[in-house]
Amino acid sequence: MRKFDVLTPVGLIFGFIMLIFGIMSNGGISSFFSFIDPASFLIVLGGLLAGLLVSFPFKDMKNMLPVIKQGFSHNEQNLNHLIRIFVNLSERARREGLLSLEAVLVEVEDPFIRKGVLLAVDGIESDVINDIMNAEIAAMEERHRKGRSILEKAGEYAPAWGMIGTLIGLVLMLKSLNDPSSLGPNMAIALLTTLYGTLLANLVFLPLASKLALKTEQEVFLKQIIIEGVIGVQAGQNPRLLEEKLSAFLSANERREAAKVLTAGEALEDEA
Questions:
Q1: Cα separations (Å) of 79 from 6, 177, 193, 226, 264?
Q2: What are the b/e assignments for 31-55, b being 16+ CB within 10 Å?
Q3: Which residue from 1, 33, 109, 205 could staple onto 155, CB 3.0 to 4.6 Å apart?
Q4: How many domains is the chain built from?
């Protein structure tokens, strides 16, 4: 189930708040406004966008906003629940045969599980099932990599365009050396582009790219569990053995939680 990831906006807001606090701690509200320069920001943003348009085809650029949106959501998946799904499928397959699983797949939300079980129901060999499902994982990783690479490139280009803006500002400053009073303000404005570029790279683009990379790793890990579960069901493994096999993917905390649930369930059965 996809849910809103509150940590992403919290991190962004916290970063900007700390930046504003650091600026205002020595000069008050007036010092904050001195860090706002639309021309410097447009140099960084415009140059960044130009670099991305040169680097990527338009169809990939259209996906940039949906890719960024992925950084603000996460899939909540209970691994214990996932293991329970395969244990139930295994019990039904041993009791009624693999063909009986097709009727219960309508209750399974994950399309990757449905695809794997349908391959098993169709009598596909386990090696072939493994190859097909791993090929889908590889294709998913490549799609995610392409989307993530836009943010990674943006993280590279933003500081560079900040430096370009600074160089432009320095050239303009050197042209006004006959007016010493303007050197300080012009130098400050010239450095703002470096600040904007570095800030966008290290607070927005690169952290979002890192979060998307982590999400991809988690999704691959989840799909590997599913593949093991599907092959176990297809091979007719004992449900208890299959549960033990899939439980190897759980952390120590998740195993303790599973044990508590199992103990509570047995207690209720004894009371009944």
A1: 21, 67, 46, 10, 18
A2: eeeebebeebbebbeebbeebbeee
A3: 205
A4: 1
d(CA 108, CA 124): 20
The answer as to whether 196 is a domain residue is yes
pLDDT of residue 267: 43
Instruction: For 234-254, write each residue's pLDDT tens digit.
Output: 988 888 888 888 888 887 776
* 197 found inside a domain: yes
**Does residue 87 sit within a domain?**
no
Structure confidence by residue, pLDDT tens digits, 199-234: 999 999 999 999 999 999 999 999 999 999 999 999
Higher pLDDT, 198 or 269: 198
User: Measured between alpha carbons, how far is 208 from 176 in angstroms, rounded to an integer?
Assistant: 41
Q: Which domain holds residue 177?
A: 37-79+127-271
Give domain status of residue 178, yes or no: yes
Where does the chain have alpha helices with state H? 7-33, 38-55, 58-62, 64-70, 79-96, 101-104, 111-121, 126-174, 183-199, 206-234, 239-247, 252-271
The predicted-structure confidence for 72-96, as pLDDT tens digits, reads as follows: 887 777 788 888 889 999 999 888 8
